[in-house]
Design brief:
Blueprint (H helix, E strand, L loop, with lengths): L10 H11 L6 E4 L6 H8 L3 E5 L3 H10 L12 H4 L8 H10 L7 H6 L1 H4 L11 H19 L5 H17 L16 H4 L17 E3 L3 H4 L7 E4 L8 H4 L1 H8 L24 H14 L4 E7 L6 H9 L2 E15 L8 E15 L1
Helix pairs in contact: 3-9, 3-13, 8-9, 14-15
The structure holds S-adenosylmethionine (SAM).
The site of S-adenosylmethionine (SAM) has 25 residues, from helix 2 and helix 11.
Length: about 350
């Protein structure tokens, strides 16, 4: 998923920086601003017990699936419903094929985020093609129907939700985030929404996934390593990914304005606000019981490098690793996007707490 601040392409940099600093007896790794789960999945592969958290529910769903599931689910509760409708002999393929072949339904996503569903209303929106909006609704409703009928385990429910979030994002008619939609349906948004298999990392640890404000969570948690990857600028994730939040929750929110924003006051992050970011960060570092604290940040962030070093330095010895990072920015003209490459310095601050 093309997610703001994703660390997917920086996994090796993080692994090198983190593993070189922590003792071999460290077992519990907390990814408190987990986003797509890319970091948690990586350290799950390194045999840590992972505690993942994010304030957004779509991120919770992704982490609950990618980090929380340790074995490929069997979907035994629904297989009888699907055969002979589906042809595949692999269980997951059978379920995904069934969902991918459902007839579309005019549900919340179609009625609020598609041109056909919003035609003639105050705000005509085009986040998805009509066909994909209906596909998304049909799949989301079927997942919920199975879940309410106790036909899915919790792992299975979140496996399917995560797959739907990923699939919807691949066909979204946006420049990259959901702060705006494009005026014409772009090529990738014309492709049919298709659920795909998720890569599940096998593990014997019982990983924990949370969906709360990380500022409150840290003091309740016991972990060896606290990895912090907060937002680094004013762009709130709740505003930039509101459509994915609604697909995940499917809670019929009251939408506002041209972009159809859902209510989001309780999801606004202090880390996106100049006056609040540093005190919030200080408080988390102070309150955590973790022996090691790592912060991913970059040279364009709201908090300055020296302020961070000074803040962390109050609690122990700090080390800083840097790496130049090619960042791509969409130019103003969203319809004929031109991408400019920018060089940003990526930081990994390491604190050995005393
Ligand atoms: C830079 S992104 C993390 C990206 C992630 N490391 C990845 O690779 O996908 C920051 C994340 O912090 C979350 N967030 C912001 N404020 C938060 C808070 N107070 N508590 C928990 N999560 C928060 C956002 O929803 C967002 O997913």
């Amino acid at each position: 998923m093309n997610y703001i601040g994703s660390k997917y392409s920086l996994r090796d940099f993080l692994e090198a920086g983190i593993l070189k600093n922590v003792n071999a007896d460290c077992k519990v790794f907390c990814d408190v601003f987990a986003g797509t789960g890319a970091v948690g999945v990586h350290f799950k592969q390194k045999n840590f017990k992972i505690i993942s958290n994010d304030i957004q529910y779509y991120a919770y769903c992704l982490n609950r699936a990618l980090v929380g599931i340790n074995r490929i689910p069997s979907f035994s509760g629904i297989l009888d419903d699907l055969i002979p409708a589906a042809q595949s002999c692999d269980t997951i393929d059978t379920v995904l094929e069934y969902l991918n072949n459902l007839n579309g339904k005019s549900g919340f996503i179609y009625r609020n985020y598609c041109p056909g569903g919003t035609e003639g209303t105050e705000f005509k929106r085009q986040y998805f093609s009509d066909e994909n909006g209906r596909r998304c609704d049909a799949i989301r409703m079927q997942i919920e129907e199975w879940w309410q009928a106790n036909k899915l385990t919790e792992d299975e429910y979140f496996y399917l939700l995560a797959s739907l979030i990923d699939a919807a994002d691949r066909v979204a008619n946006t420049a990259s985030v959901y702060g705006a939609f494009l005026k014409h349906i772009k090529k990738s948004a014309m492709k049919p929404l298709q659920l795909k298999r998720l890569a599940i990392v096998e593990s014997d640890e019982e990983h924990e996934i949370h969906n709360v404000n990380g500022q409150e969570l840290v003091e309740r948690l016991s972990c060896d390593v606290l990895y912090m990857d907060p937002p680094y600028n004013h762009r709130q994730y709740c505003a930039n990914y509101h459509v994915l939040e609604t697909i995940a929750r499917y809670d019929d929110p009251d939408l506002k304005g041209v972009t159809g924003l859902r209510p989001q006051d309780d999801q606004k992050s202090d880390f996106c606000m100049k006056r609040r970011a540093l005190p919030a960060f200080d408080n988390m570092v102070k309150k955590t019981s973790a022996r090691y604290v790592f912060l991913s940040y970059n040279s364009e962030g709201i908090m300055g490098k020296d302020e961070i070093l000074q803040t962390m330095g109050q609690y122990g010895q700090v080390d800083l690793m840097t790496r130049d990072y090619q960042r791509f920015r969409a130019d103003v003209d969203r319809e004929n996007r031109v991408y400019k490459a920018d060089q940003v310095e990526e930081y990994l601050f390491c604190l050995n707490k005393q």
